[in-house]
Amino acid sequence: MPKLQKMRTNSIYGPLRYAATRPFAQRLGTEFNFQAAIGKTERFKFITEILHSSVQSFIAQLGDPIGPGPAQAEITNVQTFGSFMKGGALIFDLSDHVSTLLSTDVSTVPLWAIPTIAESFYIHFGRNDGLEQENVSIEGVFVTWFQGKDEPQRLILDFVKKAQFGRFDFWRIEEGEPCFGCSIDTSRPDVSVKDALERSVHEIVEHNKVMEAQIAEVIKRTEALHGKPVVSVPTQVSQLESQLPVLRRGLALVANSLLYLGATRAGETHQSARDGGSSNAPGFAASVMVC
Question: What superkingdom does the record give (predicted)?
Fold first, then answer.
């Protein structure tokens, strides 16, 4: 049976720490969901014209960040958290099964075999998951099955690092606290999990090279105009290729987790958290299912 757990900074679950340390998360996440439901144009307009300035304004009220990193990270984090709320604020705790799930190879499993479970949710792996690469150690992942109007189907994975989102003064961190992960094109269900990841990463990286070249040109012109350097922060996309090893392991673990949940929880109705998606809820809560 799911148990309702409220937000707190020392929660073992990333989404509850995020809600506790970001006073703007519920309101902006709810507004994002509303605009995203209308269509692609409205979603992008909200992100560029409202979300960006709103996040900057909220962070300015909290403190004085030393650069654009915190705001850049929160623009994406709010969208991820908004999707999590829309999905019912569901957390599946698989920490007791991670070792077994990691030992099974699912790289050749086709995408069509991966069960959806819910539109968006969070999987908690705990602190013994073996998903480590240099200074990256994964604690859990936001999973979102995205289907926009006239847009390709995507599986969006946003991995949460150990102890991430536990600081009220996150705005003091130069790069902010971005999740890292990948958006995987699932429009070809016959493609294997591994091939879908490799293809999606390649497409994202190539697209990002074009965008970075455009941004570099804008920065160059701005510096020439104002006579001073422009501060910028490397995006998570620019690090995707170097993160491929841990992404492969992470995607394999997610795929195994979904197969496990699909087999063990078939036919269950997942109760969403009370007021989980409400922007005026007095205290955010999520439904936690320890599997």
Answer: Bacteria
Domain ranges, ordered by start, for the chain: 3-290
The per-residue pLDDT for 196 is 83
In this predicted structure, the answer to whether residue 26 has a pLDDT above a threshold of 90 is yes
Q: Write out the chain in H/E/C secondary structure.
A: CCEEEECCCCCCCHHHHHHHHCCCHHHHHHHHHHHHHHCHHHHHHHHHHHHHHHHHHHHHHHCCCCCCHHHHHHHHHHHHHHHHHHCCCEEEECCCCHHHHHCCCCCCCEHHHCCCCCCEEEEECCCCCCCEECCEEEEEEEEEEECCCCCCCEEEEEEEECCCCCCCCHHHCCCCCCCEEEEEECCCCCCEHHHHHHHHHHHHHHHHHHHHHHHHHHHHHHHHHHCCCCCCCCCCHHHCHHHHHHHHHHHHHHHHHHHHHHHHCCCCCCCCCCCCCCCCCCCCEEEEEEC
Q: Measuring CA to CA, which residue among 148, 149, 150, 131 is closest to residue 140? A: 131
Given a contact cutoff of 8 angstroms between Cβ atoms, the answer to whether 86 and 120 are in contact is yes
What is the pLDDT at residue 160?
Answer: 94
In this predicted model, what pLDDT tens digit does every residue of 88-113 receive, in sequence order?
999 999 999 988 888 888 878 898 98
What is the C-alpha to C-alpha distance for residues 32 and 272, in angstroms, rounded to an integer? 19
Say what the pLDDT of residue 229 is: 59
pLDDT of residue 268: 58
Q: Please measure the distance between the N-terminal and C-terminal CA atoms of the chain and give it in whole angstroms.
A: 10
Encoded tokens for 286: 């999520």
Residue 148 has a CB neighbour count (10 Å cut-off) of 13
Radius of gyration from C-alpha coordinates of the chain: 19
